[in-house]
Amino acid sequence: MTLAAGYVLALVLVALVLFAIDAIRVDVVALLLLLALVIPGVLPADKALAGFGSNTIITLASLFILTEGVQRTGLIERIGLRLSSFGGANPRGFVRLLLLAGTSISAFLSNTVTAAVLVPLAIGGARRTNTPASKILMPLAFATILSGGISLISTSTNLVVSGAMPGFGLAPLGFFELAPVGLVLTVVGMLYLFFIAPRLIPDRGDEAATEDPKRRFAAEIVLTPSSKLIGQTLANLRLPEALEIAIVGIRRGSRELLRPRPKERLKEGDELVIEGGAAQILSVKDFEGIDIKTDQRPEISGQEAPATRMVEAMVLPRSRMTDHTLRDLRFQERSGFTVLGIHSANEARNIGNLSRWHFQTGDVVLLQGHVEDIDGTAEEFGLLPLEDRSGHHPRSRKAPLAATIFLVAMVLGA
Hints:
Strand 2 (246-252) and strand 3 form a beta hairpin. The longest helix has 19 residues, at 3-21. By secondary structure, the chain is α+β, with helices and mostly antiparallel strands. Helix 4 (55-72) runs antiparallel to helix 9 (156-164) and helix 7 runs antiparallel to helix 8. The protein has 17 helices and nine strands. The chain has helices at 3-21, 26-38, 45-48, 55-72, 75-85, 91-105, 111-129, 134-146, 156-164, 179-195, 197-200, 239-243, 278-283, 326-329, 331-335, 374-381, 399-413, and strands spanning 217-223, 246-252, 256-258, 271-276, 290-293, 308-315, 338-343, 364-370, 383-388. The protein is globular and about 80 Å long. It has a five-stranded antiparallel β-sheet.
């Protein structure tokens, strides 16, 4: 072994150690290794950055952009929810349809992204069907990997191999050139996951019932005349499982808070009191036929202004909001912020009507408004801004555009 070869192997070991301890970002480690190869002359300077101009890197970068667009618009959640909802309350049917959704989507998108997006649906379905989450999550992980050999963009490995082939005098892989083998492997693997894997995966208890440690908010939503939820019973409703929210009350006509019953049918104009995390509450905004009810709701255009943000803020001691309601304070009118949800510091207190909720120290509000107004509002009302939640809000109105761009890219690539 030459000195240069030993030097490269030593760098590989150093890289593995740095990746394992995670003390330095992965991209920074990669650039440091590149410099460590160029400075001593092991790698010629003219070849050091040649890879950044290759078709493979450009294709990968473009694929990341397309995948991020599809993910941010909530398109994957909609596809997964639509396919998995046909399973109803049947555990076996739900698991199989969810696995089909995962393997179908990951044939064209990153399996990591697909699995990450479908995990909340899997956990919600586990609660609904009273199935241990371990019997769903592990098969889902394998299902998203199985279809990696169907298309050229299924995994980055396919693109890397295809990009390297011209250097050896071979033609690059076609878009569906791997499909004959990939489809066979996928079908065989899915049959295994359907009929054999459920018998081998141990029952580790009801992990799905574990409480979510994150802060949960109470919010009010109203059914619009175009809502597809009108006429459905709470027992058949897919919304709570899809978004990991809980319906804790229904307000109808007389404004009385009804105790939700499984056979209760929803009607136009019903106001539902829900509980969930900030990300789940914000996701409600993107379901057609549902709107978040606020004390005084401002007009929101189809495209949200760039300066509009959604943040969490805590009520501080001696805040002017203490023992007052949103209606008393005329909060939206004076601050310009809309309250989308409230988290009570006292779990024993039941949040009913948000506009009549009397705030206490430690309560947290989920606000929507202009970013430049947050400091003034926090100072005036005695609030402490906690976390910006804007990035968790999918832009579902752009989902058709994202789907069209992705499909056009697939057709051109094929």
